[in-house]
Amino acid sequence: MSDYTLPEVWENPSSMGGAWGSLNQPTAGSRFEQQLPVGSNPLQVYSLGTPNGVKVTIFLEELKELGFSQANYDLFKISISEGDQFGSDFVHLNPNSKIPALLDKSGDQDVRVFESASILLYLADKFHAFIPTDFAKRTEVLNWLFWSTGAAPFLGGGFGHFFHYAPEKIEYPINRFAMEAKRQLDLLDKELAKKAYIAGEEYSIADIAIWSWYGQLAQDKLWKNAAAFLNLKEYKYLQAWTQKIAQRPAVQRGLTVEHKAIK
């Protein structure tokens, strides 16, 4: 049992511990001056190869696969473990200091886009690709895109944090978030038993968003031994969908594309 007692008013601890504890602060905004590089392509992406980050590179590679030259992009590495996300230029792109962030320089006015789902939707609408034009089908894609924005934090910030990153293993939060992770996995498995892709018979931005978390989890590429711990092999329809998407050339490129240094 923990000997922790709730204080009347929370105060920032001197040390959080764990892999990310030293970076956490209870305030937003930039912490230092920064000048991010800008390349020559229409789209500038500032990111990292995390599940949220690869959503954007996978989608851009899918667009390039279709021949969209305006989807060419420069990709710069934002090292979140070193705090690059708190630099002034990056905070200007995303006030929330989270990767990925996109700067579209293709028009008369630069457009910043932040939050991975927003970037996917922005690019899908910009290029009229991987999102249906039919209103009902489009809505179903958005249902699952926004499902992913609500569900994945329970997987990453919940299960992944306490299973892998937390400085000590605590039974209650691991059980709590493992339960929720498996509920989500069961939901996806049941849905994929009925259709080829998560929103129907066509591959869409919803598949990209969800695969980047749950597909990589099924491949045990997120946290060591998490797939065995959660018994991912029991979700056969999720596994089949995972492998089908993993075989796409654009997905493979999006996972391995090189990030340029920012300094």
Automatic annotation (TrEMBL):
> Does the keyword Repeat belong to this entry?
no
Q: Where is the GST C-terminal domain?
A: 134-263
Query: GST N-terminal domain: which residues?
Result: 41-131
Query: Record's PANTHER family?
Result: DISULFIDE-BOND OXIDOREDUCTASE YGHU, GLUTATHIONE S-TRANSFERASE-RELATED
Q: Which residues form a coiled coil?
A: none
Question: What PROSITE patterns does this protein map onto?
Answer: GST_CTER, GST_NTER
Pfam families documented for this protein: GST_C, GST_N
Tell me the protein family, please: Belongs to the GST superfamily.
Q: Which NCBIfam families match?
A: PRK11752.1
Which organism was this protein described from? Streptococcus varani
Put simply, this protein is called Glutathione S-transferase YghU
List UniProt keywords, sorted A-Z: Transferase
One annotated GO molecular function is: transferase activity
